[in-house]
Each structure stands twice: as C-alpha cells, then as structure tokens.
Amino acid sequence: MKVKTENTAQGRGGRSFARKMTVEMPAETLTALKVYAARRQTTVREIVIEAVGNHLKCEGEQA
Q1: Of 20, 22, 33, 39, whose CB has the highest number of CB atoms within 10 Å?
Q2: What does the domain layout of the chain look like in residue ranges?
Q3: Model confidence over 24-46: pLDDT tens digits?
C-alpha cells in the first residue's frame, strides 16, 4: 500500500498525519454533522477525533 509522503505538517496547519480514513455515512447524517460543527465553530474532523477518543477512553475504563 502506498502512503503519501507529501503530507507535511506545514501544509496541514502544523498537523501531520500518517494515515487517512474515509467514512461513508448517510447524507442526512453528514449534513447534520456539518451543521453541528458550524454552530460550534469547529470542524467535522475535530468532532470525530474527540468522539472517537472519548469512545476509546470509555472502552478502556470498562476493560
């Protein structure tokens, strides 16, 4: 599998990534997520990172 190496931290606002993930979801869900993000003046990316992190933290506490 090829991994893009041109994703530099400078080109991404100081953030660097080793991998990307694509998630398919119903159009209505994506629209609601975009509205949610806009109302909170944040990005869909930040909401997803926080949600996944919280979920993993809860899973770790239950183990």
Answers
A1: 33
A2: 26-63
A3: 999 999 999 999 999 999 999 99
Q: What is the 3-state secondary structure (H, E, C) of 32-51?
A: HHHHHHHHCCCCHHHHHHHH
Q: Which residues are within 8 A (CB) of 63 and not within 5 positions of it... i.e. 6 or more apart?
A: none
User: CA 35, CA 25: separation in Å to the nearest integer?
Assistant: 15
User: How many Å apart are CA 2 and CA 30, to the nearest integer?
Assistant: 28
Q: What letter represents residue 37's amino acid?
A: A
Evaluated on CA atoms 25, 29, 33, 35, the torsion sign reads positive
